[in-house]
């Protein structure tokens, strides 16, 4: 690699690291205490063949109405930081899973009054053709324990509705403190 190519690669790496840092601060529009990175919506930041910055995002579910707002917020953050040109690409595969929510985000959700998802949704299985391990998500009904109340910690809770403030959450109530709360459904 020539000195010029090495300098260009190093500059690109710094620029990508800076772009990640800028986007780390972009909050989720529905849950502003967590970033799109912490929720696992921000999947990648890379350079395209034409040199433009590409930001890859995945919705929490395919009909998520917040995705256009998230793309707009990403654009505003990149514009403010002087990153141009850029593109925001929404990808649906692999499908988002609550396994992508960071541990820090789970604690922030709890402190905000939303019970974070429990358990994990995926398993690693070898691909039949290549033998390499791949994350497999199973969408089968399963019996999970009721989530703990994010306010008092009681596990004595009940589901009031399959959908809460957004389609990716269910509405629960704590039987002990009587407070309602959203539960981020695991999928």
Can you walk through the features of this model?
The chain is α/β, with parallel strands linked by helices and 187 residues long. The protein has two domains: 3-90, GMP Synthetase, Chain A, domain 3, CATH 3.30.300.130; 102-123 and 137-184, no CATH class. The protein has helices at 3-24, 67-80, 103-112; strands at 42-47, 53-57, 86-90, 114-115, 122-126, 133-137, 157-161, 169-174, 180-184. Strands 4-9-8-7 form a four-stranded mixed beta sheet. The longest helix has 22 residues, at 3-24. The N and C termini lie far apart (45 Å). Mean pLDDT is 85; it is low at 1-10 and 123-127.
Keywords:
187 residues; alpha/beta; GMP Synthetase, Chain A, domain 3; 2 domains; four-stranded mixed β-sheet; 9 strands; 24% strand; elongated
Short note summarizing the structure:
The chain is α/β, with parallel strands linked by helices. Helices cover 25% and strands 24% of the residues.
| Share of residues in strands | 15-25%
Integer count of domains: 2
Q: Mind describing the biggest β-sheet?
A: 4 strands, mixed
Strand order of the largest sheet: 4-9-8-7
* Count of individual beta strands: 9
Q: Which structural category do the helix and sheet elements fall into?
A: alpha/beta
Rg value = 19 Å
Oligomer: single chain
- Uncertain segments are 1-10, 123-127
CATH homologous superfamily annotation of the largest domain: Fe-S cluster assembly (FSCA)
User: End-to-end span in angstroms?
Assistant: 45 Å
CATH C-level of the largest domain: Alpha Beta
Q: Provide the residue-averaged pLDDT.
A: 85
């Amino acid at each position: 690699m020539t000195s010029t190519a090495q300098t260009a690669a190093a500059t690109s790496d710094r620029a990508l690291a800076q772009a990640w840092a800028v986007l780390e601060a972009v909050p989720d529009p529905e849950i502003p205490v967590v970033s799109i990175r912490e929720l696992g919506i921000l999947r990648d930041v890379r350079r395209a063949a034409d040199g433009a910055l590409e930001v890859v995002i995945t919705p929490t579910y395919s009909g998520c109405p917040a995705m256009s707002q998230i793309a707009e917020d990403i654009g505003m953050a990149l514009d403010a930081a002087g990153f141009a040109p850029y593109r925001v690409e929404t990808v649906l595969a692999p499908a988002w899973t609550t396994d992508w929510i960071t541990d820090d985000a789970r604690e922030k959700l709890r402190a905000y009054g939303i019970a974070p998802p429990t358990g994990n949704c995926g398993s690693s299985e070898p691909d039949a053709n290549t033998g390499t391990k791949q994350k497999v998500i199973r969408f089968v009904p399963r019996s999970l324990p009721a989530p703990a109340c994010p306010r008092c910690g009681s596990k004595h809770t009940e589901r009031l509705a399959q959908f809460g403030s957004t389609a990716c959450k269910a509405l629960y109530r704590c039987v002990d403190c009587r407070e309602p709360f959203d539960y981020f459904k695991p999928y």
